[in-house]
Write a structure and sequence with these properties.
The chain is of the alpha/beta class. The protein is 40% helix and 12% strand. It is built from 18 helices and 15 strands. Strands 2, 3, 4, 5, 6, 7, 8, 9 and 10 form a 9-stranded mixed sheet that branches.
């Protein structure tokens, strides 16, 4: 079937010799589906009444099951081939949406495809395969098996383990996933590797991911007004080319973007936390351009990485956009850094949340480094330590002759809060009373020390980088992937805790001594603004098709979209207020983020709530649209 797809599709100039990896990965996907059928056959077939060779009832039962499986598989492949011929995509669950307009869809199918011949072909092929199964069954039934009970048990366990291995797909921490196909380096290779079962059932839970085209069109002017661009004649086109702005750097600076795990603002020294957990990073902020009111669109590492790289808030529910194969194709401003080498460093594995497919499928010529690519040893489930991650990355970046755009994603500030033994002589753990910890946002000394160890890693990285020639022409950008829920009342108004704003409030720092004059900026900013700001700062013309904005452009309006998938809440932070709306009940709220005073119930604040509600709706509806329509160039 995979060879058939290759020969009867647009091969995009690939020869068979270039597709060995795709065919081998495809074999692994196929073995998974086969094993999913074989495991229940192995278990149930061990019951005497359902034994396929010693019981007549068992033979009839399993031949019927195999017959159904054959027809089902052939039907799936037939629909898959038609789907691929129409959209150049393997069959996915979005095809079920056609059933909502069944009459029109069936009419299109009847007029477009040779349905009668397809059905006859499926039935004839099914009949042939069922005949082969019966011949094989008779042949095996004639054989005599003289094994002992012990050997039967051994073979049962061995078969079960082999099938289990094929279902898991690899000898690693994470199972084989659909996103591994997109790590092959091209959409065609990915499509060839997948089979319709893998692509369909991986997308089944996402089949309702969609958008309201009417609402997107109606609210397009709101997006244009707030992002300061004029939408094109097509209200569904948000793509705009952004030219370099005055004041940008002309030195083609290197970029090192650090996505900081759980870097919750209120737990850090920059915002006056008395536990003084991040003194080194605080010193960097005083030397750089520091945005102290930056918010992630939502909580969660996968959503944070997505928003940072793509510029689109991840508003998928209940899972994440990175886990949805229909959304894996995304444009990123990183690709507008022409002539730059691109790097991504992670101490663990990018199999989590299927993020590997997002990275390798969308960032051109990406050099991806994971835990097995380093000399440092893995310390816990998240891979090597952040300190070693930074040092390993620094060694690689120090060797570069061309400009580079590097992303380093940390992980240690996360359970199980491991502090490597090799660092415990230099890094001294602190101990505080429980009431002090809880008063200033921490639940334990382990959590607090992991936060301090993050700062230790930043210090070791910058100290090492300062010794390298790339340092003087590099912009280091630090942004949290998300904040952490906790008690922030000792440092911020109550709304930051009660409305969980502290789970989205993170530091955003642009650090480049000699290139950028220090300043602390209080304008509200968002994680989705990171890439446009880096590009604007770097004198790079870029295509922007999402919701990010250049924070250093004087025309920029400060606001941040926020989204709580756990409670189905959308909202926006703007000016002195947080607005939120419950998606199901439509209940609205407006709270102050600068003090604990209740918002007055008057006409002026009713107007503020209305305007922020309209902006929230516009950002939410447009984000849903962009997740499915922010395609790479040529898509």
């Amino acid at each position: 079937m995979r060879l058939g797809l290759y020969f009867f599709s647009n091969q995009q100039s690939y020869g068979l010799g270039q597709l060995g990896g795709a065919f081998f990965l495809g074999l692994r996907y196929d073995l998974r589906m086969i094993s999913i059928l074989l495991v229940p056959m192995l278990i149930l077939g061990s019951i005497p009444a359902l034994h396929p060779f010693t019981s007549k009832r068992g033979k009839k039962f399993w031949m019927t099951i195999l017959g159904i499986a054959v027809v089902f598989a052939l039907f799936f492949f037939a629909v898959d081939f038609a789907h691929y011929a129409y959209l150049e995509q393997r069959l996915n669950a979005s095809a079920l949406n056609y059933l909502e307009d069944a009459k029109i869809s069936m009419g299109m199918v009847w007029q477009s495809y040779p349905i009668v011949r397809l059905v006859l072909g499926i039935l004839l092929m099914a009949a042939l395969l069922i005949w082969i199964f019966n011949r094989m069954h008779r042949s095996v039934s004639k054989q005599t098996y003289t094994g002992t009970k012990r050997s039967r048990i051994i073979f049962f366990i061995g078969s079960f383990l082999v099938c289990g291995f094929f279902i898991f797909g690899r000898l690693a921490q994470y199972p084989l996933r659909w996103s591994d196909a997109f790590a092959l380096g091209g959409d065609y290779k990915a499509g060839l590797a997948l089979n319709p079962f893998e692509s369909f059932f991986s997308t089944l839970k996402f089949r309702h991911s969609s958008y309201d085209e009417k609402k997107v069109k109606e609210l397009a002017p709101v997006i244009g007004n707030n992002l300061h661009f004029t939408p094109s004649t097509d209200p569904l086109s948000f793509a705009r080319m952004v030219a370099p702005r005055p004041g940008a750097l002309t030195s083609r600076p290197n970029i090192v973007l650090v996505i900081c795990e759980s870097f919750s603002a209120y737990k850090s020294s920059m915002f006056g936390n008395p536990l003084n957990t991040t003194p080194f990073f605080d010193s960097l902020c005083r030397q750089g351009v520091f945005f102290d009111r930056c918010f992630t669109p939502t909580y969660g590492t996968a959503r944070g990485v997505w928003a940072t790289i793509t510029g689109t808030p991840d508003v998928e529910m209940p899972k994440t956009a990175s886990r949805n194969p229909s959304m894996v194709d995304q444009h990123t401003i990183i690709n507008n850094f022409n002539g730059y080498d691109k790097f991504y460093f992670l101490g663990g594995s990018t199999s989590w949340a299927n993020i590997r497919g997002v990275l390798t499928n969308n960032i051109d010529s990406l050099h991806l480094y994971e835990q097995d690519d380093y000399t440092a040893k893995k310390i816990d489930v998240w891979g090597i330590s952040d300190k070693n991650l930074f040092l390993e990355a620094n060694k690689i970046l120090a060797k570069q002759e061309k400009p580079f755009f590097a992303i380093i994603q940390t992980a240690d500030n996360h359970r199980p809060y491991t502090i490597p033994e090799e660092d415990q002589a230099e890094f001294k753990k602190a101990q505080y009373p429980y009431d002090s910890l809880t008063k200033f946002g921490f639940e334990s000394n382990d959590e607090m020390n992991a936060f301090r160890y993050t700062d230790f890693g930043y210090r070791k990285f910058i100290e090492a980088a300062r010794k390298e020639k790339y340092y003087n022409n590099t912009v280091f950008v630090f942004v949290g992937d998300h904040g952490i829920v906790g008690n922030a009342d000792g440092l911020f108004p109550h709304a930051w805790t009660a409305q969980r704003l502290n789970t989205m409030h993170v530091p955003l720092l642009f650090y480049a001594p000699g290139l950028l004059a220090p300043q602390r900026i209080h304008n509200i900013s968002s994680q989705v603004d990171v890439m446009p700001t880096i590009a604007g700062l770097s004198n790079i013309p870029y295509k922007n098709g999402t919701l990010g904005k250049d924070l250093l452009d004087s025309a920029t309006t400060g606001f941040a979209f926020v989204f709580d998938p756990d409670n189905s809440m959308t909202g926006v932070v703007k000016g002195e207020y947080l607005y939120r709306k419950q998606l199901v009940t439509k209940k609205e709220e407006l709270v102050s983020i600068i003090n604990n005073d209740p918002v007055p119930n008057d006409a002026a604040h009713a107007a503020i709530m209305h305007d922020m509600g309209v902006l929230t709706d516009a950002l939410y509806e447009t984000a849903k649209y962009m997740l499915l329509n922010n395609k790479k160039a040529g898509k």
